[in-house]
Protein: DNA polymerase-3 subunit beta
Amino acid sequence: MDVTAPAHRLSAAVSAAGRLLPARAALRLRADAGGLTVAGSDPDLTVRFGCPATTHTDGSVAVPAAPLAETLKMLDTDVVRLVVEGTRLALRLDNARFALPLLSAGSAPPDAEPPRVSEVDGTTFASALRIVAGTAAKDDPLPLFTGVRLQAGEHLTLTASDRYRMAVARLPLRSPGALDVLVPAALLTEAARQAKGVVGLHAGPGRFGLSWQGGLIGTAVLDAGFLSPDAIPTRSVDTTVTLNADALAAAVRRVGVYAEDRRVLTLEVGDTQVRLASARQDTGEAEETLKADVSGGRTSPSFQARYLLDALHAFAGERVELSIQPGMRACVLRAAQPGEVELTYYLMPMLAR
Structure:
């Protein structure tokens, strides 16, 4: 194999693959008339990224991912030439040479691409996913709560929860398709960060994939059966409050400084306003009142401040509607005027001390 590639483009492709694959993974580089392909896989995951290149001699090699990524990051050059030299892959520059050992083909299994079932706009998908995946647990013994459920029909629905909150986003598909999978949230978020333009959704037995021009990821899926907003009772709403999400978030940040260690704040609902108040023996006390449209009863829930801020951040720049249920039932947050992406955020209340 002998190929010349833009150093920054190749570095971006190798780094993207490295972030998705295990630390000791191998990368397979394949050069042909179409350019250079960077690919890697383990038993559960397959990644593939394209890079423009001038191929002098076709070929395919496997090399260690980590040293290749680190070397490319530190290069201060526009182009790099990759040449197989015996049992090494050499990275040649005008004034330097770096050589990596070639690995056996068995270190890099062949790509697997499940069938495409539909397509979605990449920007819209990534934006919705950032919000939804933020509610997934980062480290939980139950894999169910570390994933994002993707369900497709006429629309694409994304769902995630860490048991204290749940976010559900509904966004348009470019074509109808059948899909119901649970994908690890961290992997899906990193993949969506790389995706550009139209993103293909792929599904096969026990597998899910995302593809876009120049990139593909395929992964084994988790059990999606139990993660559903249908399991959350929402028929007991007795208070509805509508106000500016940014104004409420700013008030939560200010008043939260004076809250006790758990940072639990109560939204005291009045006829035309909500009041936030907190006190702490060593820092003092604070209260702030905001105008709001209020209907129904006067149920006043308490929330952990950081969870409430996460929920309000999802509605930045909008007016948000809080549908409040009595007792320890979930509060439902929605945009007062939903846009292309319909987002619903379920937030569990806390016991006020």
User: Anything to note?
Assistant: Residues 116-230 form a domain with the DNA Polymerase III; Chain A, domain 2 fold (CATH 3.10.150.10).
